[in-house]
Amino acid sequence: MIKPSQTPKSRLSAEQLQRLQAELRSPYKPIRRFFYAGFALSGGVGAYIFAVKILAGDSSSKMLLNLLLQIGLVLSMGGLWWWERDDTPSG
C-alpha cells in the first residue's frame, strides 16, 4: 500500500489541475449545457411555428397555450444555463 508521503509528484500542469478541480465541483457540466441548448433550440422552433400559426389566423386557445409553453421552455433553459455559469475569473 502506498502512503501519501510515497506518492510521486503530480505530473499535471496547473491548467490541467484546474480543469480537473472544476470538473469535480460540477460534474457533467458540458453534457448538461448541451441538453439545455438542444431543448432551448427545440422550444424556439416550436415557438416560431405556433407564432406563425397564430399570425396566420388560427386563434384557438390551444395555439396560444402551446406558444406560451414553448416560450416558457426557452426561458427555463436559458435560466438553467445562466444558473450554471462559471463564476471563477479566467486567467
Automatic annotation (TrEMBL):
Keywords: Membrane, Transmembrane, Transmembrane helix. The chain crosses the membrane at residues 34-56, 63-83. Pfam families: DUF3493. This is DUF3493 domain-containing protein. It comes from Lyngbya confervoides BDU141951.
